[in-house]
Amino acid sequence: MVYRKLDELTDDEVYAAYAPPAPDWLRVNFVSSADGAATLEGLSGPLSGEEDKRVFKVLRARCDVLLAGSGTVKAEGYGPLVLSPERMAWRKAQGLPEVPVMAVVSRSLAGLDPAMGIFTLAPRRPIVVVPADLPEATVGPFREVADVIAAGTGAVDFPAALAALRELGLRQILCEGGPRVFGELIADDLVDELDLTVSPLLVGAGPVRVAEGPAAKDARPLELRHVLEAGGNLILRYLRGSTDE
Ligand SMILES: NC(=O)c1ccc[n+]([C@@H]2O[C@H](COP(=O)([O-])OP(=O)(O)OC[C@H]3O[C@@H](n4cnc5c(N)ncnc54)[C@H](OP(=O)(O)O)[C@@H]3O)[C@@H](O)[C@H]2O)c1
After folding, report:
1. CA-to-CA dists, residue 208 to 140, 146, 214, angstroms
2. How does residue 161 score in pLDDT terms, banded at 50, 70 and 90?
3. Residue 245: what pLDDT?
4. Which keywords does this chain's UniProt record carry (predicted)?
5. Nearest by Cα to 197 from 19, 41, 17, 30
6. In this structure, which residue's CA is closest to atom 16 in ligand 1?
7. 8 alpha carbon to ligand 1 midpoint, in Å?
8. Would the CB of 65 count as within 6 Å of ligand 1?
9. What is the mean pLDDT of residues 177-186?
């Protein structure tokens, strides 16, 4: 385990600190207050600062696909997935397409609109991930602007949806939440890595935790890989630990 100050690391060292251990990998990135709140004034933004955004951007630059639930996309006002010229150049040097693909998970597509910039302005054709029994009248308009992964009945079956992403060659998956999607991924034991920023704030009662929704059967062990400190934020990298004793 390594403890480092983030501002003492070069960009290359930060990229190296987040090298994925396997070709198929699902990492989840969250920020939480020191007392466990996943939002402040309904958003994650006020919990994080410029310092930990550096890691956030490296994680985006390292993925093939960025997966987010519709609650997060709507609350945080996600626009098209774009990267800075430096990050695009880094990806190109790795032999990757200049930007990752955006994938939005929804049960209903309610409150999402094919005219939203996340679809119409996307540099790469996005994906919507929905249950297979969602009526075509609802899904159809999204086919104009996005590919559709249909998996599960009544709700997205995450193991099947992740397999479908991997079949498309989108093997490095970064999930930026939100809490209900993360809760489902934990319940299905699909999470390989949690990147968690703990911000030096007491928010108090009220906001959701980083994981909500269905209860997991067992607590999953994690291995702490490193701690980066930036402006009082602790940027933790956990890998899914072995359950073998
Ligand atoms: N602290 C952080 O790092 C962080 C990160 C992300 C988000 N947030 C915050 O979290 C809040 C949003 O929370 P949230 O839990 O609503 O976000 P979310 O997990 O992004 O979205 C929930 C939505 O995802 C869809 N969904 C979840 N499970 C599904 C399944 N099995 N099948 C199909 N669709 C499924 C549903 O969409 P439909 O309703 O469209 O059917 C559901 O309403 C916002 O306030 C945001 O700011 C914080």
Report:
1. 33, 30, 14
2. very high
3. 40
4. NADP, Oxidoreductase
5. 30
6. 71
7. 34
8. no
9. 97
